[in-house]
């Protein structure tokens, strides 16, 4: 009696492009954000990949059941079905455990990469790839990060080789596009800029010093001009006394008593004022 666990596997990666098929199924009235749509698509891809692995395992179990059918005729069809079901459940649990372990290794590799520990990140990414198949979407993402870690760890040839491999053979068009773009950025010719084309930015300190020196000289000259004008407007007491000693009375007032009395009083007041000022 022939046993069949499931139908033929779905050819999800036909033509190497799953984004176009999904976009065709989503109408223009899609109102969910692009990020939620991308997460949903990724979840569907992972479920389909797991289903394909389960289908392969079911085919193996079915072939084993057919081989043992000729040896043991006493096992009923129901018992065979239960045995295959238990085997599939066991395989599903093992796959979930492996995926969790690979996810943990992938996250540890990302953290190590963010901290600049590129050699350690390479170890984590390579360990995750021993669990996750490289042809899956998750395996492609791990390889993209592994290539970036190669480049950061001065392994340029390994990085370019991995990008080319992903670009040429990975089933996911998204992974192929990312690998092609990153490889193009790394291999793009570098522009040569001459000394005349470079922009020179003066140092802040030198500019400030020149400004401060200009400001000091400017206001120093201004202060000197102000002090000079003040000196001219207010002559010193020495010059005033010299002019007073050289003064001669007008003609005809030498014998005028009232004039000399007034002059004496005035000189006394001036002398007292000078003494008090000191």
UniProtKB/TrEMBL annotation:
What PROSITE patterns would the database entry show?
TPR
Q: Membrane spanning segments where?
A: 258-276
Q: Which UniProt keywords apply?
A: Membrane, TPR repeat, Transmembrane, Transmembrane helix
Write out the biased-composition intervals (Acidic residues). Answer: 19-35, 68-77
Cite the residue spans of the region called Disordered: 1-83
The keyword Ligase appears for this protein: no
KW Membrane (keyword) present: yes
Q: What domain of life does the native source organism fall in?
A: Eukaryota
Q: Where are the TPR repeats?
A: 102-135
- Compositionally biased tracts (Basic and acidic residues): 36-67
Q: What name appears for this protein in its UniProt entry?
A: Uncharacterized protein
- Organism from which the protein derives: Ricinus communis
Q: What is the lineage of its organism?
A: Eukaryota, Viridiplantae, Streptophyta, Embryophyta, Tracheophyta
């Amino acid at each position: 009696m022939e046993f069949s666990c499931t139908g033929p596997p779905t050819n999800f990666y036909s033509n190497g492009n799953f984004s176009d098929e999904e976009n065709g199924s989503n109408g223009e009235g899609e109102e969910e954000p692009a990020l939620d749509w991308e997460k949903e698509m990724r979840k569907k891809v992972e479920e389909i990949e797991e289903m394909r692995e389960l289908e392969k395992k079911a085919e193996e179990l079915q072939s084993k059941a057919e081989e043992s059918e000729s040896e043991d005729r006493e096992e009923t069809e129901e018992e065979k079905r239960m045995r295959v079901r238990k085997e599939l459940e066991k395989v599903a649990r093992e796959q979930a455990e492996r995926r969790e372990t690979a996810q943990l290794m992938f996250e540890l590799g990302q953290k190590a990469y963010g901290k600049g520990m590129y050699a350690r990140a390479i170890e984590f990414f390579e360990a995750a790839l021993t669990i996750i198949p490289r042809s899956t979407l998750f395996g492609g993402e791990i390889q993209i990060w592994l290539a970036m870690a190669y480049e950061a760890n001065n392994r340029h040839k390994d990085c370019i080789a991995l990008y080319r491999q992903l670009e040429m053979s990975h089933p996911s068009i998204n992974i192929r596009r990312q690998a092609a773009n990153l490889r193009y950025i790394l291999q793009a010719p570098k522009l040569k800029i001459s000394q005349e084309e470079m922009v020179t930015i003066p140092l802040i300190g030198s500019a400030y010093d020149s400004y401060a020196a200009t400001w000091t000289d400017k206001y120093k000259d201004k202060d000197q001009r102000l002090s000079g004008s003040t000196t001219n407007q207010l002559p010193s007491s020495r010059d005033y006394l010299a002019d007073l000693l050289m003064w001669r009375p007008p003609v005809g007032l030498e014998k005028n008593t009232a004039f000399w009395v007034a002059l004496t009083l005035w000189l006394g007041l001036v002398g007292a004022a000078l003494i008090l000022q000191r």
